[in-house]
Design brief:
This protein has 128 residues and is mainly alpha-helical. 90% of the residues lie in helices and 0% in strands. The protein folds into two domains: 55 residues; 53 residues.
Length: 128
C-alpha cells in the first residue's frame, strides 16, 4: 500500500498537469494561464520589434545626417582649393564644361567600341 501511495506522488510530481489535478480540477485555469503566457510572449515580441524598428529609423537618420556632414566637408575642401589657387568662377565653368565634354567623348567612344564588338560577333556567327 505504501508503494502505491509513493508511486502516485511520483507520478503527480512528474506530470506537468499535476497542479491542476491537485487543485481539485483547476486544470482549465492552468491551460488558460498558459494561453495567456503565449499571448504575452507575442506582445513582448511586438514590443521588441517596435524597439528594433525605432532603432533602425534612428540609425537611418543618423546615417543621412553623417552623409550631409561628409558632403559639407568635401565642399569646404573644394572651396579651400578654389581660394588657394584663386580660381575664378569663369575658370570653374570652363573646367566643368571641359569635364562634361570629356565625359561625352568617353561615352561616344564606348558606344563605338560596343558597335564594333557587335559587328565582330555578327561576322563570327555568320561564318560559323
Amino acid at each position: 500500500m505504501e508503494y502505491i501511495i509513493i508511486l502516485f506522488f511520483i507520478l503527480l510530481k512528474e506530470n506537468p498537469y499535476h497542479k491542476g489535478v491537485c487543485r481539485r480540477g483547476n486544470f482549465i485555469k492552468e491551460e488558460q494561464k498558459r494561453e495567456g503566457e503565449e499571448s504575452m510572449t507575442k506582445e513582448r515580441m511586438e514590443k521588441e520589434l517596435q524597439k528594433i524598428y525605432s532603432k533602425i529609423k534612428q540609425l537611418q537618420e543618423r546615417a543621412k545626417d553623417l552623409e550631409q556632414q561628409k558632403q559639407m566637408a568635401e565642399d569646404a575642401e573644394t572651396m579651400k582649393i578654389i581660394k588657394k589657387y584663386k580660381i575664378s568662377s569663369e575658370q570653374l565653368q570652363l573646367w566643368n564644361q571641359w569635364k562634361e565634354e570629356e565625359i561625352l567623348e568617353l561615352l561616344k567612344q564606348k558606344k563605338r567600341e560596343e558597335k564594333a564588338d557587335e559587328q565582330q560577333e555578327w561576322e563570327t556567327d555568320k561564318h560559323d
